[in-house]
Every structure is written in structure tokens, then in C-alpha cells.
Design brief:
By secondary structure, the chain is mainly alpha-helical. It has four helices and three strands, in the order βααααββ. A three-stranded antiparallel beta sheet has the order 1-2-3. α3 (50-64) packs antiparallel against α4 (69-100). The longest helix has 32 residues, at 69-100. The model has no long low-confidence stretch (mean pLDDT 85).
Length: 113
């Protein structure tokens, strides 16, 4: 009973034309890719970690100097770092989902198995 498992498209209910989205994307020409941008792999976001870390450092320095702005700097930098971490985690999840997705060639519907 070995072999590959056939997946049925949830839209057209066919199983004869499903393939991995990543493999399908590699076969497209640049013109073909331009016609279906919604199928593209999610981009990596170049997050800048230096600014929130700098804000945390300044906040610590101001806190040591016994200034109330130190608390503001620490809170702002911490919130900024948490939001960046969440965005990076969401982008990683989207890219992992893209690698798992299948596409139905007859109806061009992308879906998770």
C-alpha cells in the first residue's frame, strides 16, 4: 500500500492535478509568476533589532541615573521587542504554511492538506 498520497482539492474535488505549491512555483516563468502574485512565497521581513535594543539600553542608563524616563524607555523598548518577535514568528509561520501548501492545477486553488 505504499506510494504517494493523493490529495483532493476542496474546491473542485479533483485529485488528479494536485502538486506542491513550491514545486509549481519553481516551474513558472517570471511572466507566469507576475500573473499569480497571491501564490508567491511570503517574503522575509528584515526586522531591525538595533533600535529597540538601543531604547532599552538608554532606558537602563536613565533608570540608573534615577530618572523617570528610564521606566518609559524600558517599557517602550520592551513593548517594541515583543511586537518585533511576534511579527517574526508570524512571518515564519506563513512561510512554513506556504511550504506545506498544495495547488490544484485544474482550478488553481492553493490549500493546506
Amino acid at each position: 500500500m505504499g506510494g504517494t498520497r493523493m490529495h483532493v482539492c476542496p474546491l473542485c474535488k479533483r485529485s488528479d492535478g494536485t502538486t506542491r505549491l513550491s514545486a509549481y512555483w519553481r516551474t513558472l516563468s517570471p511572466e507566469g509568476r507576475a500573473g499569480v502574485p497571491h501564490l508567491a512565497r511570503p517574503a522575509l521581513h528584515a526586522e531591525r533589532w538595533t533600535a529597540p535594543l538601543g531604547l532599552l539600553t538608554v532606558g537602563c542608563a536613565l533608570l540608573v541615573a534615577d530618572t523617570w524616563l528610564g521606566f518609559v524607555g524600558l517599557a517602550g523598548g520592551g513593548f517594541w521587542l515583543v511586537s518585533l518577535r511576534d511579527r517574526v514568528a508570524q512571518a515564519a509561520k506563513e512561510r512554513a504554511d506556504w511550504h506545506r501548501k498544495l495547488i490544484c492545477r485544474p482550478c488553481h486553488h492553493a490549500f493546506l492538506p
